[in-house]
Amino acid sequence: MSGASKTSRKVFTTIQSHPEPGSEQERLVFQQLQKGFSKQFETVFPDKLAPRTVVILPSLTLDPDILSKIKGSVYYEERMLCLLMLLRMPLTNIIYITSMPVTESIVDYYLHLLPGITGRHARKRLTMISCYDASHTSLTQKVLDRPHLIQRIREMIPDAESAHLTCFNITSLEKTLAVQLGIPLFGTDPDKSYEGSKSGGRKTFREANVNFPDGFEDLTTKEEVINSLVALKKKYPDLRKAVVKLNDGFSGDGNAIFSYKGLDNQSIMATSITAEFSQRFKTVAHDVSEALFFEKLKLMGGIVETFLEGEIKVSPSVQCVISPSKQVEIVSTHDQVLGGDDGQVFIGAIFPADESYNITLAVEGKKIAKVLADKGAMGRFAIDFISVKQDDDSWKHFAIEINLRKGGTTHPLLMLQFLTDGKYDADKGEYRTASGNKRYYFASDNVSSDRYKGLSPDDLIDISIFHELMYDGAAQEGVMFHLVGALSEFGKLGLLCVGSTPEKAKEYYDKTIEILDLETGTV
User: Fold this and answer.
1) Spatial distance between the Cα atoms of 185 and 160, rounded to a whole number of angstroms
2) pLDDT bucket at 456, cuts 50 / 70 / 90
3) How far, in Å, CA of 320 to CA of 363, rounded?
4) Eight-class DSSP state of 117
5) What pLDDT digit, counting tens, does each position of 304-347 carry?
6) Which of 3, 123, 320, 358 could form a disulfide with 333 if both were Cys (CB 3.0 to 4.6 A apart)?
7) pLDDT, tens digit, for every residue of 476-515?
8) What is the pTM of this model?
9) With contact defined as beta carbons under 8 Å apart, do 167 and 58 qualify?
10) Rounded distance between C-alpha atoms, residue 201 and residue 199, angstroms
11) Are the C-beta atoms of residues 304 and 243 closer than 8 Å to each other?
12) What is the C-alpha to C-alpha distance for residues 277 and 58, in angstroms, rounded to an integer?
């Protein structure tokens, strides 16, 4: 062997060593980083002129089998592009990480919406980074599998003490990445992730003394599910349906419905449910089999609870923020638009929730948020409810689940706040802009049609300009698009339609659908 071949090559960059994921050392480093975040939250966050770096990781770190059932899931990473509006603060730098590159015209579309800042000024402070990996592996895992990429990101952060990582949801993977980047994470320590699970949520509801459906939690086997279904039917002989949920399902795709139709003989109830289980058990995601569902139940656990009935019932949510000092703020209420055969799939949201119950709904949400704050939760999250109208026209709110992460109601609210500099008043149940005007919106993540396939982001922007669908910054009304990258391949996109009245917001939505259908020959 020649001498030249024995000579070691110089590595172009030195990869920093890090604590072993899940180790005690990693936990201690993470806790120290989080202590620094408390100071950031108090001093940097309120100051619009404070230098800062925000590393945005829109990773849906969920079970890969469940994630693969979501049409165009990789493009859900675009929902957090609303955070590009942070660039309206002139000394803010953003590093935005995605699985695949985001089309430049989509980035330009968001920068065009920035109030008071030119697109060029904002673009200089924005770094878009891609893993060039479209697989169903979580984005965070993709980043962790690329140590040179992590090193590059570290080198792009000028001051770690004024930087933080923000994610869609937080697991041990995001915790590991925060430690390897050397910056804190804005969210709940994943050691407390159980509190955001379906089972953990039911326990929190008990502690908060709020209404929630009767049922059972911490189930891991089919036998336990069957026993729970039998117990509920014996307790409530008129019960028609029950819901079975995986602890960490997403957008309703981890849910299943069990029908009791025709099961009235209590003496043979257990035998009947066992024998007829497969015919009566229906997963919400049609391509999630019964076998796969219970495989996931064994891994992550789940719950069984009564399916709430009511002549008039709605599905609102409350969005909250818990500060590092455990201060609780109710930042929104929404009426969820649900679809699917049994109304288990999140389609979109109306903001604010109906004025007949949004104030009392916020009160219930705050009770739950305070319990979560005491348990160590932090950051932005939502609580889903089912509200049933009573005979006296009042509403009874039942807490359903806690989403201890960002969700489908996060990006439209943030977009509205960034564009109007306004705030939601939970005591009055209304949102007002900085100039004191009320605003409402109708938002959806699931506008889809096969006819829309083939439309590029540029096509969509051309259509919206020609038909005057673009958001009007002066009037603070109009239409904004998201999930635009999913349009050409999947015929799917999201809409945020802002109006001065609820009717005006819905009018923008209907007009947009009408124009898209017209332009694609659907009508």
Assistant:
1) 12
2) very high
3) 11
4) S
5) 999 998 788 899 999 999 999 999 999 999 998 876 655 656 67
6) 358
7) 999 999 999 999 999 999 999 999 999 999 999 999 999 9
8) 0.89
9) yes
10) 5
11) yes
12) 38
Helix, strand, coil percent values for the chain (each to nearest 5): 40, 25, 35
**Percent of the chain residues topping a pLDDT of 90:** 80
Q: Render pLDDT for 213-238 as a digit per residue (tens, 0 to 9).
A: 999 999 999 999 999 999 999 999 99
Which residues are registered as beta bridge partners of 215?
305
- CA–CA distance, 386 with 241 (Å, rounded to integer): 15
Which spans in 125-182 are helix H?
139-144, 147-156, 172-181
Tell me if residue 416 falls in helix, strand or coil: helix
**DSSP character for 158?**
S
Contact 335, 315 (CB under 8 A): yes
Mean pLDDT of the chain: 91
Q: Which two three-digit tokens encode residue 430?
A: 């209304």
Burial level of 450, CB count in 10 A (0-12/13-18/19+)? exposed
Which domains are assigned to the chain?
A: 24-186 (3.40.50), 214-306 (no CATH), 313-519 (3.30.470.20)
Six-digit token pair at 513? 């659908």
What are the residues facing 498 on neighbouring strands?
A: 441, 478
Distance (Å, rounded) from C-alpha 425 to C-alpha 432? 8
Predicted local distance difference test score (pLDDT) of residue 225: 97
Burial 337-375 (b: 16+ CB within 10 A, else e): bbebebbbbbbbbbbbbbeebbbbbbebbbbbbbbbbeb
pLDDT band at 4, cuts 50/70/90?
very low
**Structure token digits, residue 428:** 């009055």
The CB-based long-range contact list for 146-150 (8 Å cut-off, 24+ gap) reads: 147/15, 148/13, 148/15, 150/177, 150/180, 150/181
Distance CA 68, CA 64 (A): 6
72's tokens: 């165009």
Query: Looking at residue 5, what is its pLDDT?
Result: 45
Tell me the CA end-to-end span of the chain in Å, nearest whole number.
74
Looking at per-residue pLDDT, the higher value among 396 and 193 belongs to 396
The token pair at 301 is 């656990």
**16: helix, coil or strand?**
coil
Both tokens of 30, joined, read 């993470």
Cis-peptide, bond into residue 190, ω within 30° of zero:
no
Which amino acid type is present at position 86? L
DSSP string, 272-298: HHHHHHHHHEEESSTTS-HHHHHHHHH
